[in-house]
Amino acid sequence: MVSVQFILAIGVFFFLLIFQAIFLAVIYREIVHIQRQLLDQQKQEALAQQKQLLVKENEQLKEYADYLDRNEDELRRFKHDYQNILLSLKVSAEKGGSQALVEELEKYTSSQFDQKALRKYPDVNHVKIPELKSIAIAKLAKLYNEKIDYSFGCEPEISQIPQTNLLDLVRIIGIAFDNAIEASQQLEALGGQRRVEAMYYQEGGDFEFMIRNRIGGPVADSDQLAQAGYTTKEEHAGLGLANVKEIVSQHDEQMLLDYGPEDGWFNFSLTLLPENVEEEI
């Protein structure tokens, strides 16, 4: 016959076992909660640092953009007038037989005007939205420094676009530029001719950003290109287009995305629609 003491011992054992299990579950839950808090705190700190960096960079670029606005048109007029003056002096010198003066004038012109530098920021002064202007300046400067042939257009002047999250729009534009630049760098290694063409465009209340770059060979299909981790570049995470698609998916009723290779180019197009476009239709 089982004694009372044995039954009590079994009861105490099971009680301690259950208590230990509950205690371990509570401890595990607290550890998970603390880890999540630490991760959230780290993410918040990283985002705060990134935001501060973006704000600082935006302020610097805005200041530079304001300078360009004040000086670009005036510089173009001066260049035009100077060339006319130079032409008249050249004709006079040739009539007078002063070949040395002609050569000196041409040499002075070459030293004073870097034709490519004058075209470093074409049409940027037509962009009146600081965030869009800043990202254009930053990426055009990178193209210029990388010695990649490029063009940028903005006609007509853009001072207002459909209401949206500008940081998301700037991220997409930045990724598209970076992809074009990286593809151009890869193309150079293959001996191809590098070229990037980009533009801001507005019609009927929408906003369009288009960019294309030369490519040197076959490119994966659009679905494969947008897969996270897919890349043809060395030491590259392959997250560019995947990130773009994720951002666009959060604005799927307002943003239209199109991209893919065509006739030796990789084309990328983003259209931002007014929020009430469906109501108007």
Fourth-level CATH superfamily of the domain at 121-280: Histidine kinase-like ATPase, C-terminal domain
Termini gap: 87 Å
Low-confidence stretches: 228-232, 234-238
How does CATH name the architecture of the domain at 121-280?
Answer: 2-Layer Sandwich
Total helical segments: 8
Largest sheet: 5 strands, mixed
Strand and helix order: HHHHEHEEHHEEH
Note the topology.
Blueprint: H1 4-95, H2 99-112, H3 115-118, H4 130-145, E1 150-154, H5 166-189, E2 196-201, E3 207-214, H6 222-225, H7 240-249, E4 255-262, E5 265-272, H8 277-280
Parallel strand pairs: 1-2
Antiparallel strand pairs: 2-3, 3-5, 4-5
Helix pairs in contact: 1-2, 1-4, 4-5, 5-7
Walk me through what this model shows.
- The structure is a single chain.
- With 281 residues, this protein is an alpha+beta fold.
- The protein has a domain at 121-280: Heat Shock Protein 90 (2-Layer Sandwich).
- It is built from 8 helices and 5 strands; from the N terminus they run ααααβαββααββα.
- The protein has helices at 4-95, 99-112, 115-118, 130-145, 166-189, 222-225, 240-249, 277-280, and strands at residues 150-154, 196-201, 207-214, 255-262, 265-272.
- It is elongated and about 135 Å long.
Quick take:
This protein is of the alpha+beta class and 281 residues long.
List keywords for this structure.
5-stranded mixed sheet, alpha+beta, 8 helices, 281 residues, Heat Shock Protein 90
